[in-house]
Write a structure and sequence with these properties.
The protein has 396 residues and is of the alpha/beta class. It has twelve helices and 17 strands. Helix 1 runs parallel beside helix 4 (86-100) and helix 1 crosses helix 12.
Amino acid sequence: MNSFDFDVAVIGAGPYGLSAAAHLHEAGVATRIFGKPMEFWANGMPDGMLLRSPREASTISDPHSAFTLEAYERATGTPPAKRVKWGTFVDYGRWFQQQIGCDLDQHQVTELRRENSGFRVSRDDGASFKARRVLVAAGIGAFRKTPEVFAQLSPERASHCYEGRRFCEQGRRVAVIGAGQSALESAALLRETGIEVEVIARIRELRWIGMHKRLHQLGVISKLLYSKHDVGPIGISRLVAYPNLMYHMPTSPKDLIRKRAVRSAGAPWLIPRLDGVKISTGRTVRTAREVDKEVQLVLDDGSERRVDHVLLATGYRVDISSYKFISPELLREIRQLEGYPDLSSGFSTSVPGLHFTGATAARKFGPLMYFVTGTEFASKEFASWYHHHRNGNGTH
C-alpha cells in the first residue's frame, strides 16, 4: 500500500504555481508548494522594470477572484498605477501566497523521480517526500537563451537580462542585443542611469505593440477583435484566448499563431524613453571577443564596436531538460516536442501523474500560457481535471 505525504506537489512558487495551489487548496486537495514565492520575478528581472501587460491582465487567478491586484492595492494602501511596477508585482505575488493558506516549502527541489505509483521529491537539505501527483510550474529562469557567438564571454563582460544584475555593474558603455520588450526597456533604463547604450537588433525595423488605438476604442466591435488578455494582434488575440481551441489545432498553424503572438516588439510608452539610445536594426553580431577589459563586437556589415558589457535580451527557449531537478530516468520517459512536454488534457504528460503548466504548456495550449493572465485558464483547467481523476493517476 502506498502512503503519500500529500496529493499534489507544485514545484515553483511563481504566478502559475501559486495560482494552481490556490485552486487545489480551495478544492480540499492536500497540496504543497515548493519554492520561494516570486523568486524569479524578484531576482531575475531588470531593476526598475514595468510590466508590459495591462493591469487587467496582471492578476493571478484564485477560485473566487478575491486576491486580485486591486485587492492587494486596497489591502496594503498601494496607490494604483496605470503601469504596474516590477517591485509592486513581486510584493503582490508574495501577498497572494500569504492569503491562499496553502502549505509552502521554501527549500529548493534537487530531484524529482518516479517511485512506484507516485513521485519522490527531494530537497537541498536531504529531506524527501512522496507525492501522488506533481505539477511542474518552475517558470522560465532555466531557459535563458544565449546565442553561440556570445557563449565564450566572461560573466563580467556579458550577462542575460533575466539575471537581474544591477545596471551599475555593467560599465559605461553597453550593447543590448535584441528587439523585444526586455531589450528596449533595459536600454531605456540603462540610458536613464547615464550609461551609453546601443541596441543591436536583427529585425529591419522595431515593432510596437498596440499602435492601432482606434481599433481598441470601438466598444463591442473591439471586444470581438481583441480578448481581455491582450495577447497577440487583431484576430489572433481572440484565438489565443481559447487555449482548448488552440490545443485541438494542428501543430503547424498553431506554431505560426504562437510565434506571431509573441514576436519581438516593445510597448509604445518606451519610445520617448529611448531618446539618446543608438539603435542599429537589420544587424547581427558575427564575432564577440574580450580585448583589454573590453568586448570587441564585429557586425555583419564589417563595422566594429567596443563596449564594457554586452546585455543579452535574447529571450528564452523552452527545454525541460534544463530543469536539473528532473532525474535523467524520468526525463527520458517524458514525451517531448522540441523541448516542450507533449501535453494532453489536464496538462498531463506521457508519465501518469506528472503535469506541466505555464510557459512549458504553450506549445500545446498556445501563447496565453506565457503570460500571467493565462493562470486563470490553466489553474481552472487543472483543478477541474484533477477533480475528475483524483482517484487515480490517469493516462496521457
